[in-house]
Request: fold
Amino acid sequence: MKTLIASLLFSLTIFSLTNAEEGMFPISDIGGLGLAKQGLKLTAKQIFDTDQTCLVDGICKVNGCTGSFVSPQGLIITNHHCAYRAIQSSSSTTNDYLQDGFQAKDLSDEIPAKGYTVRITESFRDISDEVLSAITPEMSYTERTKAIEQRQKELEKAAESKHAGQRAEVAEMFTGKTYVLFLYTYIKDVRLVFAPPASVGNFGGEIDNWEWPRHTGDFSFMRAYVAPDGSTAEYAKDNVPYRPKRFIQVEPKGVDDGDYVMLIGYPGRTSRHKTASFLEYEQTVRLPYVVDLYNWQIDLMTAEEEQDRAVALKHSSRKKGLANVEKRSRGQLKGLVQKNIVATRAAAEADLQSFINEDESRREKYGSLLEDISAVYAEMKANRYKLDVENLRSASRLLYFAFSLYDSAVERQKDDIERETPYMDRNIDVTRRRMLLAVRDFHAATDQKILAGMLTRIRDAGEKSQDFSSKLPTADAIPNLYANSRLGDAGFVESCFDKTPEQLESMNDPAISLIASLYPKYLELRDQSKAIEGQLDELYGNLVTVKQDFLKQNFVPDANATLRLTYGHVNGYSPQDAVHMSPMTTLGGAIAKVTGEPPFVLPKSVIEKHAQREFGQFMHPGLKDVPTAILYDTDTTGGNSGSPILNGEGRLVGVNFDRAFEATINDFAWNESYSRSIGVDIRYALWITGEVFGANHLLNEMGVKQ
Reply:
């Protein structure tokens, strides 16, 4: 049963009836949104109901993305870029599924998507009082964070013990103020069913990423499997397709300009309730750092892979992720400056400060609140060298393997509830699988250059980093570090997971020895981060309270990877003077972009079928072509990748995969005039799947008449 938490979330949400509305609304709030006036033909209870099967039961979380069940046999449609890791990890120079695509002719041909899980929201309840009761006034900020973390773990473990086979997770809805416990059906056997070639699924590559017009067929099909008795289980040959309570009907007629659409999914994280000082830190420190660091890594990878497809395959998943975040960060920087977001937020805070100062009791409680928050970010700016120190253990894969193994060994000596989250018994298998996938893609020559560059960056930070940099190897020692470490060997890495810290150190692996010497410093940094988190949690909790008093209204909590609904219409926009972007693109437009060189290539069969106008039932009657992508004014962010684009009847008309470049700023601020999301039109997905690649058995399974 989906336990309603309306007392918490309904009271915290603004409701208004504009054509396009800011808000990734908690799913329990939709009854107050007045969506019938916008074009919704379903009732709120048909979308979400605590006591019966509803539309939400057809939506799932696929790792960090969203997916939709589109058949009673557990078939899931999501993005190509969400399935990318599964496609890449199954590819080789002999079977290059990234380049050529993949199609399972029947269930027996479907291949494991290693490292993937599927989750379906089953229930959720407010546990704010239970979490916050763990805090006492005399606690330090570090102790405060640790107490909250431990209480969350206790509540999660208790919930899972009562609900065998389900997964529990606590989500912070308003920072330092409200917490919700979610229960999920947790599926661990996920398989790849169909993926178009990257020339379709990633058409336009990073050049077109975050841009409109767009012509990318960013979709793939996966399938969820369970044990024969219906329980969740690891991959096994005798597992059977999962039977969802509800699946989403596909609408092969798609949508048109002006039509109502809504998305249901699991958007990642937004920061719309953060202060101007936070935004200024993002604008001047973190975002420029990410752009610089990620571009540098991408350039190193590109240089190493130019003559070797095997190396390119190893780099492909990580490089794609880096490029995606780099361009998004660049768009956010541009938006922060051009839209003057920091000054706008500061002006609003000046009004809030005046409100606080007007009343003696408010002034006593909140008078220094904004100043205190600003001081935290000022300290983070002063210690920006820590960004390189922290990224050292992720940018270098060798040190990532060494740190994760050593950290796991230390944490696994503790009681389960006291461990860092990745190393708890309930999480260790996922941690292990993800590392082994990363080991599979390890390329030592690239990694040596990344490590050398990171060491230079840390040493260039000067006196503040000296305590840390003095323990780092010299440039001359790096080749021997790689030559003598066995952490590129998956079998060796797997064997290390069961060892104690002392046993790891006794193996004399130079990478592990290096991390062991750095580990006390990393523990110190971890505690410092928890102290900052504890301080900001308390401060932002107070900020939410006083803002609600000031505005005389409530507001939608920032996105936090929990189930949300957003709505709007298929709608173009004007990114600059005298330029209007219409909201639909066509296959003809994609072919016009073809240059014969990546990323602007298409399979020969696609070009030929377009030339012969073999569109089947998927031609748009007005455009006289197959629509490829659509643009709409819903409110989305990362995690909405793969979210179903649903029409007023709750039928699938597309799959969300991106935002326009101007909308990268959505994470900080939303505006109807320029915030646009992008999805692949379902007609293009169906045409590619059936007409081009002949996977008509999947169309039949989805109930699409041919």
